[in-house]
Amino acid sequence: MQTETISSNHPGKFPTTEHFDLVILGGGTGSTLAAWTFAGEGKRVAVIDRKYIGGSCPNIACLPSKNIIHSANVASLFRRSEEFGIVHRGFTIDMTGVRERKRAMVRGLNDIYLDNYRKTGSEFILGEGRFTAPKTLAVTLPDGSTRQLHGTHVIVSTGTRATIESIPGLAESKSLTHIEALELGEIPEHLIVIGSGYVGLELAQAIRRFGSRVTVVGRRPQLMPQEDEDIADALRLLFIDEGIELCLGTHVRHVSGTSGGSVSVHTEQNGIGRTLTGSHVLVAAGRTPNTQGLGLEHAGIELTHRGYIKVNNRLQTTAADVWAIGEVAGSPQFTHISVDDFRVVHDNINGIDHVTSGRQVPYCLFTDPELARIGLNEKEAKASGIPYRLFKIPMEANLRARTLSETRGFLKALIEPGTDRILGFTAFGVGAAEIMSAVQIAMIAGLPYTRLRDAVLTHPTLVEGLIPLFSSNPVDSAETPLARTADASAPA
Ligand SMILES: Cc1cc2nc3c(=O)[nH]c(=O)nc-3n(C[C@H](O)[C@H](O)[C@H](O)COP(=O)(O)OP(=O)(O)OC[C@H]3O[C@@H](n4cnc5c(N)ncnc54)[C@H](O)[C@@H]3O)c2cc1C
Ligand SMILES: NC(=O)c1ccc[n+]([C@@H]2O[C@H](COP(=O)([O-])OP(=O)(O)OC[C@H]3O[C@@H](n4cnc5c(N)ncnc54)[C@H](O)[C@@H]3O)[C@@H](O)[C@H]2O)c1
Fold it and tell me: Where are the extended beta strands (E) located within 286-421?
């Protein structure tokens, strides 16, 4: 590593400027892959993160939430055990045990990440970073000392945090965010969830399955408003069957009391006020980009009107040789997109033109059962005037789902008339994400749906359900009112 002037890095002294080929501010998944990859290509790379080795996904977001959700699903199976012919004399949920399984997983991931940093020769720097000049960052280390880093290229990937809206009393209520909710050592007596999106729905179901009373307050009348109404309605019925109270189309006016003791959420729906009183409140009402205090103004990096870092479709910021990836760049908020953002920047830095435009954005809501989608749904196709043929079958038509006693939900696919190309696929059911991925691969290959229909797929698998789906009778979009309910008579 090259250094400039002779000076020390101790508090009060002016730090040496250290030169790197690539400095990365914020160590999320895309950043981590960037560090390891560029270092593997012989570049000098430093990653700065103030708290998390690997960023949110392995520490406080995707993987810990899926770990806790799995424990909750085990609890659900315990409750249903007689359905499977297994009788037991009651069971106890020990949230400290649930938490420890998650913590052990996170520790294991952190060890692997640190080991990879060592093996690749990239440097992980624990500290708070901010720009002091173009492509130059000051990092405040845990002991209060400072390092100054300059990168030939810089990537900014500082992510987002849970939005705490300026609702009177909300900040004072010491509400949980997903971070604290994933660290609970006891089952809340009554959890009130503000927000009915991904975090709210996944965690509401999990915590309900641990035995908590749960109420979800959502501003929009429809759960997952971007999805087709039949999907949202099936999700709503699932939550009702789970014993979760849904207050949709409801606005939070103020909050009083303290989460962890007694907390009241004062709401209004169609002009009618209602006070919900519970033991805990979880705020899951969207995300705020982490851009404050980064000194972006010293580096020529501009923000969008929504507060995200302004980038073009090659993920270049308004400053030369400074790139932004992941959630802070306004990219869709999924780890696989943060990974793809890394690929885009990697190629562009290496002189290969690569853009984000037109890429696939598959996703899965990890409720039980899951909701997964790739490509167009009916709502989007109709809004864009795109004609389609709709194939739709209930999960009951999937024989593997029957063996599992998991027949809730349905599969639906939109096909382009004339070409038989798959325009989109949505699954609400057991293994939805895995089934969707099989369809996605067919879409990547540009295969007509008939290739899936006529494929020899292993019996009995969930993916085999694509055969009855694509063998069923399609309906032309001109004849499909939105929100057709699942056709129980579809062929098995
Ligand atoms: C509860 C939850 C569950 C989720 N589940 C899924 C899922 O199942 N699947 C999925 O695809 N996505 C999921 N997501 C979304 C996913 O976690 C993110 O999209 C993904 O982690 C990408 O984040 P990122 O790389 O943009 O930022 P992050 O991973 O958040 O990285 C940003 C990093 O920057 C650091 N940082 C910020 N400011 C500074 C600074 N000044 N100095 C130093 N470091 C700084 C932070 O400490 C952080 O580690 C979930 C999110 C949440 C909240
Ligand atoms: N399985 C996954 O891939 C997964 C899981 C969790 C999170 N994520 C990602 O993280 C992002 C953030 O998740 P999130 O759940 O925080 O945000 P979100 O945008 O998914 O949902 C927030 C919801 O809260 C509602 N809301 C906002 N303010 C409200 C208020 N005052 N009162 C009531 N409702 C209010 C919004 O209408 C919205 O429906 C997601 O968009 C997703 O991309 C992904």
Answer: 287-289, 322-324, 363-365, 370-375, 389-394, 410-415
